[in-house]
Task: structure prediction
Amino acid sequence: MDLSLFPRISLGHFPTPLEPMTNLTALLGGPRLWIKRDDCTGLASGGNKTRKLEYLMAEAIAQGANVVITQGATQSNHARQTAAAAAKLGMKCMILLEDRTGSTDPDYTDNGNVLLNRLHGATVERHPGGTNMQQQMELLAERLKAEGARPYVIAGGGSTPVGALGYANAAFELIAQAAARGLSIDYLVHATGSAGTQAGLVAGLHAANSKIKLLGIGTRAPKEKQETMVYDLACRTSEHMRMRGGVPRESVEANCDYVGGGYGIPTPGMVEAVTILAQAEGILLDPVYSGKGMAGLIDLIRKGRFAKDENVVFLHTGGSVALFGYPNAFDLPKS
Ligand SMILES: *Cc1c(COP(=O)(O)O)cnc(C)c1O
Result:
């Protein structure tokens, strides 16, 4: 499968490293744990949206856009990476943020990703939880068009067939990296939200005829809804890639047992996972996505889901900037 036909611009540092987590492996007594460092994609402190934006921003440029509009939760990493990409490409960026948590902590509302959005020169507009954000973006685009601007709207999380190409490509990158070091990967585990990451990986792994089993750990929706979102987008992505026959429904698995009280609401498992990774591996996860993803992986390891000699790769999707929006979630010594 050749993705070079699709327009793409360079925004990140690729390939991202694939590293062993020897301390975490020892701590949990196996399986063999690895980490694919998509927190190191380079753009404005990195994260998984960079791969999607390489394709989405190429499309924006091809359409002659001079302003990009996107949306997300208050501490959206997607918004921050979009703001940085727009800055690099000399476009304006308008970000609509939805209050999905109700938190009034000033660190949550204005620090972390929100601070960086503004530093990259993006405008930030707030909406209450439950707003139809896609509709708000389209209304804004209409207003801008009427004023003579050329807006390009990026769906939440960049999760469209175009954005998901970034993760079809990431699947090829990982397969090549593993082959180069003689590593046979049994499982790939990651946090799933707006579904573009998992959908792209499903399409890419299927296109490459890979035996790697993929598991998404949900961060927002219940299992059935999450799997439907991923499957639908994976089918549309594979169609966009001109693959025949779609993707098998069985290749989509999401475990949504680790969402806790809701999207962006801290859980004890997330706090434990973020703390363990920080202290055993020197790696920063995030409170909304990768922390809950790792909480799921750790719990499933403890429940015996993986054989001790299996190789399990955790895809680190980034997000550590959001830690600065949640300083009180962690009970840390003050001195
Ligand atoms: C957006 C995001 C995810 C989820 O990826 P989707 O493609 O939206 O499913 C996971 N981790 C981090 C840090 C994110 O910002």
User: Anything to note?
Assistant: Residues 47-48, 77-78, 157, 159, 191-198, 286, 289-290, 317-319 surround pyridoxal-5'-phosphate (CB under 6 Å). The two ends are 54 Å apart (CA to CA).
